[in-house]
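Section 5: illustrative case.
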């Protein structure tokens, strides 16, 4: 029997949250995700997430072996009883199986979510000057504002948050980074009515929908990223009913595992025949449906394909900048 030749194990690198934010930029992240979704989709390589729930806790895992990446890996994150969440991405070399990196995935999540929305939005709206409304003022909302500004010509941006100080902070931070007027609205309706693109990037504390379909008109486009589990709500059922095309990064999970779509199904709102995958959008299989859509929506739950793609980019850039931390540990492996 032939045995494998001994080799020196790879040294695993830790990429911190500060390093992730220091090395990433929106153009390269958007381009990496655009390329990842241009590849043919294989459900076996990017399976559905797994969620474990405890007494006031939950733990979620996402795994993928992307064709476009030299790494495979997974993200695991969990919420404690104190409502705090930590995130970790592990990158495995697809050739050797070695653990190349451990990445703090807290910032990765905001980068990949917003950049994926930007990849979708640039395909479903035209490039004329756009009026953007944003519901939410946290990290995800700010990231979306910045990412969208790299794919659209924005005329102005309006944000709503129920806390005046938070929306003022959003205006100060985002207004200093993008080249258009940024203003705060006093109500969610004011941040939605008359806009070209509406981004829902928050949920109410009691899970009451924050975006109502009665505010939407033909010619608008919607992005929803805040409701990813069955007990979470961001959209009312009228929004689901009025949107005539629903693009999803993970169609099965969006349709069956998110509170918005579960509620729509329970209200007998038909939406399954309106759903297409982001992969089909990017590779051109849905061009005719995009052209016919009058009120399209991109609804995202996040996937490991996004996580691994952006973590690999952060890994490469961190090593090039000599910012990765080599860990004083070795992982033992074996032939399988």
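Designed sequence:
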């Amino acid at each position: 029997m032939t045995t494998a030749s001994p080799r020196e194990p790879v040294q695993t690198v830790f990429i911190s949250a500060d390093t992730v934010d220091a090395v990433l930029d929106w153009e390269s992240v958007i381009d990496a995700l655009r390329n990842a979704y241009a590849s043919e989709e294989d459900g076996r390589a990017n399976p559905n997430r797994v969620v474990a729930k405890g007494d006031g806790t939950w733990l979620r895992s996402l795994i993928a072996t992307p064709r476009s990446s030299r790494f495979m890996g997974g993200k695991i994150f969990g919420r404690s009883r104190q409502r705090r969440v930590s995130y970790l991405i592990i990158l495995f070399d697809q050739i050797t199986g070695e653990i190349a990196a451990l990445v703090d995935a807290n910032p990765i999540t905001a980068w990949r979510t917003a950049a994926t929305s930007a990849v979708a939005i640039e395909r479903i709206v035209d490039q004329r000057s756009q009026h953007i409304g944003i519901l939410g003022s946290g990290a995800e909302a700010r990231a979306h504002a910045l990412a969208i500004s790299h794919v659209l010509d924005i005329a102005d941006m309006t944000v709503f948050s129920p806390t005046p100080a938070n929306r003022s902070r959003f205006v100060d931070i985002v207004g200093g980074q993008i080249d258009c007027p940024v203003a705060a609205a006093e109500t969610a309706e004011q941040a939605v009515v008359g806009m070209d693109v509406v981004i829902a990037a928050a949920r109410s504390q009691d899970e009451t929908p924050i975006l109502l379909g009665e505010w939407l008109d033909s010619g608008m486009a919607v992005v929803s990223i805040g409701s990813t589990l069955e007990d979470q709500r961001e959209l009312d059922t009228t929004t689901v009913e009025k949107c005539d095309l629903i693009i999803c990064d993970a169609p099965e999970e969006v349709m069956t595992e998110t509170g918005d779509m579960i509620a729509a199904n329970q209200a007998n709102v038909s939406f399954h025949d309106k759903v297409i995958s982001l992969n089909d959008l990017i590779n051109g299989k849905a061009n005719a449906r995009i052209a016919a859509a009058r009120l399209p929506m991109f609804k995202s739950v996040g996937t490991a394909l996004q996580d691994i793609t952006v973590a690999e980019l952060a890994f490469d850039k961190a090593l090039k900048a000599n910012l990765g931390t080599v860990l004083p540990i070795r992982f033992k492996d074996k032939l399988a």
